[in-house]
Design goal:
single chain, mainly alpha, two-stranded antiparallel sheet
Length: 386
């Protein structure tokens, strides 16, 4: 693609692109919520405010942000989400994740102010590529159980616990609890080598939908906007789930929003649910890091730094292909603003999303207004999604 410079602002194109993004991103929001370890509907309920804050702060017309596969898996691993949910319940885990988002956001902003963005630009290209490959494996390991097995990751883990891999998994959990990736890869290996355990309906549905999303655009009319294949696959699978008593996991019922919840800005009512700051302050976050604030700060700073590698890759690509200049300190601070907003909404930390940013560009985005339109659609449609 030729270098052309920043696009000329066109509000109509931004509204159209923002609407397309709102529709095509829903499956990702649901999937990444599962990756974090809480209910799928929370991905929908918490996506709007952080993206709106990002739109106000970022300098990139194309870049979109939100919970990604990387941030979901890192948050769950850092907080040992599965064991925490099993011991304390999902509501307590949401408070814990949200509190961590606040710390990651604060560390992001501080790193941006002290000049870390420029330092991160010196990271070797091979390191960035290795990071992306590692995250890709993590994404596959997280997604396959929910795709191939009728009852998702819970069913897979139960089968692994009864297999020859049970001893290795127990050893790793006991002697190297931080090495969650080794357990995920073990589960992945079991999943792909035991097709006889796959769900008779879930697995074929997963394969067909994945193939259609990857290749379907070639067979659709050229006039259809980017991401149409995602909407079609999601709609058809949902209809099948409703009409034919699908036995696998589903998103589940979205709770009704409290009529009194939300923010009132004069005559404008914003239907978002914010967490109680007291609950965030009382979340036992420090205890998850050995009771040490130093360890917590280091972990949150490393999380922020790794997050920023994604933003760097996206922004550098747009600069090379479209001539869109970017500022490392500004984007790192934008990441901080979005993560802090995510924390108050009950979301995991957010970062730049490569796939959503590319679709945004393809859909004709001309400014940051596009992602703010997407955010407002998610926010104002949430009361009706239940």
């Amino acid at each position: 693609m030729a270098t052309t410079g920043p696009p000329k602002f066109n509000p109509v194109r931004d509204i159209i692109a923002g609407t397309i993004m709102a529709a095509t991103s829903v499956p990702q929001l649901v999937a990444y919520a599962q990756g974090v370890g809480y209910a799928s509907w929370r991905g929908l309920a918490t996506a709007g405010p952080p993206l709106f804050a990002w739109g106000l702060a970022t300098g990139s017309p194309y870049m979109s942000c939100g919970v990604t596969s990387i941030t979901a898996l890192m948050a769950k691993a850092d907080l040992d989400g599965e064991s925490y949910v099993a011991e304390h319940g999902e509501e307590a885990y949401v408070n814990l994740v949200a509190a961590y988002s606040l710390w990651v956001g604060a560390c992001s902003a501080i790193l941006g102010l002290v000049g870390f963005g420029k330092l991160a630009g010196m990271v070797p290209t091979n390191v960035r590529k290795g990071f992306k490959w590692g995250c890709s494996i993590g994404v596959v390991a997280s997604a396959l159980p929910n795709g191939l097995f009728t009852k998702g990751s819970g069913e897979l883990k139960a089968k692994v616990a009864e297999s020859v891999f049970a001893g290795f998994v127990t050893f790793m959990k006991t002697n190297a609890p931080a090495a969650t990736g080794a357990i995920s890869v073990t589960n992945l290996f079991y999943a792909i080598t035991h097709p006889g355990d796959w769900g008779m309906i879930a697995a074929p549905l997963f394969v067909v939908c994945t193939a259609f999303v990857m290749k379907g655009s070639k067979y659709l009319p050229k006039s259809f906007p980017p991401g149409t294949e995602v909407i079609i696959a999601t709609a058809l699978a949902t209809i099948m789930s409703m009409k034919f008593d699908y036995p696998g996991n589903v998103v589940g019922e979205i709770p009704q929003l409290d009529p009194d919840a939300g923010l009132n800005l004069g005559p404008i009512k914003i239907p978002i649910s914010l967490l109680n700051p007291k609950d965030l302050m009382e979340a036992p976050l420090v205890e998850r890091f050995g009771g040490s604030y130093v360890t917590l700060i280091i972990s949150a700073s490393l999380f922020a730094a790794v997050n920023f590698l994604s933003i760097m890759g996206i922004a550098s690509g747009f600069e090379a292909e479209n001539g869109v200049k970017w500022s490392a300190p500004r984007e790192l601070i934008s990441q901080g603003v979005a993560c802090i907003t995510a924390g108050f909404c009950g979301s995991a930390p957010v970062s730049g999303s490569m796939s959503r940013s590319l679709v945004s560009r393809m859909a004709g985005t001309t400014s940051q207004m596009s992602c703010m339109v997407t955010a407002l659609i998610w926010i104002y449609m949430m009361p009706y999604m239940s």
